[in-house]
Write a structure and sequence with these properties.
- The protein has a domain of about 220 residues: 3-Layer(aba) Sandwich (Rossmann fold), CATH 3.40.50.
- It is about 25% helix and about 15% strand.
- Strands 3-2-1-4-5-7-6 form a seven-stranded mixed β-sheet, sandwiched between helices.
């Protein structure tokens, strides 16, 4: 931990890019930053952002569209801000191009090139600090010359050329109170002098929670969903209540998950009929997976939806939000769809799966806030 500084640094401002459904934004706001603007492409995510901004009576402006089509200077004029006015620029560029479960096309995928928009906005805004989230695959992604790690190395060099000192760490969300075994790279870049230190874990696996200075045990799936009532059943999700606690599991998927023990997946249950297991193979460990109430969840993703630990149904979006660390007063907009299918705009499960867990974002943002307080007199 860095040394605490008692100096009052007043209002801190932030600028959110690749905002998604606002998971990172929630953590940054909880750390004490005021978000002036968000940029997001997905229409349903923008509706989610606007709805919560309205409910919280904030003045954050949402820019909906492809980030590449916006001019940072025009947005700065629109917000009446100048270079150096923003304390924190943050966001999580699309990860599909670098994900280890995808095709790993890196910069050959248009989405991979979006990484460099962080640099474009940093150069224009000149924020005091930058926070970025990405999958671990970014660290080893090949550049256009085929060099492993070339993309990340180039990105770091460009950050340093802009006058920033970057630091990064693979962080496990479960170690910061999120009931999910989700690993992501978090990068923080600050102006000199740089004393930033990543936050120390607060939680650990039960076997590591003994001793004089023991950490808290991991928060489990059961800890966060056991008090929820039975979800509503509805086939038409055109009108969805704000709690998003809706079960839309198809009849056939209820039949297929039936008989799968808690914490297990369908493909491993060789005692079940082949008609029930279908074409699943032993590699399909996350398809038709029941979570375990006594453990943290697997990583929530944008595609597959995990099943309730004991009920023959998918987890609802509200249960996903609990597992991701969203507050209960936060609402989602957009449809609730089943597990399969391609959609243009993100449904509620995918909005959560693509988000940064708010408690993880908060823990890092608090460290950034502290280092800003320590170096205010040095024009940090």
């Amino acid at each position: 931990m860095i040394k605490e500084c008692s100096q009052d640094i007043g209002k801190l401002t932030a600028f959110s890019i690749f905002s998604g459904a606002g998971g990172m934004d929630i953590g940054v706001m909880q750390a004490g930053f005021e978000i002036l603007a968000c940029i997001e492409l997905d229409h349903n995510c923008c509706d989610t952002l606007r709805e919560n901004i309205k409910r919280e009576n904030r003045e954050t402006k949402v820019y909906e569209g492809d980030i590449r089509t916006f001019s940072p200077k025009s947005i700065m004029n629109d917000l009446s801000i100048k270079e150096g006015h923003i304390d924190l620029l943050f966001g999580g560029p699309p990860c599909q191009a670098f994900s280890q479960i995808g095709k790993q096309l890196s910069l050959q995928d248009d989405r991979g090139m979006l990484l460099y928009q962080v640099l474009r906005y940093a150069e224009a805004l000149k924020p005091h600090a930058i926070m970025m989230e990405q999958v671990k695959g970014l660290l080893t992604a090949k550049d256009l010359n085929g060099n492993p790690g070339g993309v990340f190395n180039s990105f770091i060099e460009k950050l340093e050329a802009l006058g920033y000192v970057p630091k990064w760490k693979v962080m496990l969300a479960a170690e910061y109170g999120v009931p999910q075994l989700r690993e992501r790279v978090i990068l923080v870049a600050t102006r000199k002098p740089n004393g930033f230190v990543f936050p120390s874990p607060t939680h650990a696996s039960p076997e590591r929670c003994s001793g004089l200075f023991a950490l808290l045990p991991y928060v489990t799936v059961g800890d966060v969903i056991n008090d929820l009532e039975e979800p509503l059943q509805k086939t038409d999700t055109s009108t969805i209540p704000d709690n998003s606690h809706y079960d839309v599991t198809p009849k056939r998927d209820r039949e297929r998950i039936h008989g799968v023990p808690e914490g297990k997946n369908l493909s491993s249950q060789l005692q079940l009929p082949i008609e029930q297991r279908g074409r699943l193979t032993k590699k399909d460990t996350t398809k038709f997976l029941r979570l375990n109430r006594s453990k943290p969840s697997n990583t929530l993703r944008g595609g597959e939806i995990f099943y309730h630990p004991i009920a023959d149904r998918y987890l609802t979006p509200r249960e996903y939000m609990r597992i991701h660390g969203f507050p209960d007063d936060y609402v989602l907009r957009g449809p609730i769809r089943g597990r399969t299918g391609t959609v243009k705009d993100l449904d509620q499960h995918r909005q959560v799966g693509n988000a940064v867990p708010p408690p993880l974002a908060k823990s890092v943002a608090l460290q950034i806030k502290e280092i800003m307080a320590c170096h205010k007199s040095l024009n940090f």
